[in-house]
Amino acid sequence: MTTTTDRFVPALVPGEVILDQVVAARAPWSAVVAAGDVLTIVDIAGNQAVDCLLYSAADTRVRYSAPETIARQGRIALTSGSVLRADTGAALMTVLADEVGVHDTLGGACSKESNTLRYGQHTRFQHGCLENFLIEGARYGLGARDLASNINWFMNVPVDPDGALGIVDGLSGRGKRLALRADVDTLVLISNCPQINNPCNAFDPTPVRMIVTRP
């Protein structure tokens, strides 16, 4: 489903449209993207963070590894050309194109527990990305032990000289896109981040659009 506000934004890599859906603010989403197909993620309103986990659809024990991905590419941030690797070293997806330029691999996923620790007990009722991952992952038989360090698309997490991480306003804007090619059949889990306590999504979660094309 698309809306009138983002219908004009095409997939970043053209091709036959296999899937075109809008993910509501704060909501989870998932799909298996077939090898060779391309997933375009559209930041509809701008400055929204999109948490993401990747698994081999053939064997979900093979999953995205932040350490393996960072070590192989020799840099922390993700952008065009980044290969998203499993803990085995196998390529799951590759960033073909990117209109933002910097995406986070370190910030992790918010949760009821982390919200409480960082922002106080009054935030404990707020569900986070961890809860979204558990809800959506359950559809594929995945549980808490199957979660790993995640990617935060569109999120800006600078590393200070002393090694501390910051969470600041994103670099994305209205309609900005990135495109991911599946190198194997890949299960993609998304949490359209519900965080309202820090500026990762301008304190105002907004929808994103997921388009799968077959070049």
Automatic annotation (TrEMBL):
Residues in DUF1989 domain copies: 22-187
What is the superkingdom listed in this entry's lineage?
Bacteria
Pfam families from the UniProt entry: DUF1989
Looking up NCBIfam families in the UniProt record yields: urea_degr_1
Which protein, by its recorded name, is this? Urea carboxylase
> From which source organism is this entry?
Mycolicibacterium doricum
Lineage per the UniProt record: Bacteria, Bacillati, Actinomycetota, Actinomycetes, Mycobacteriales
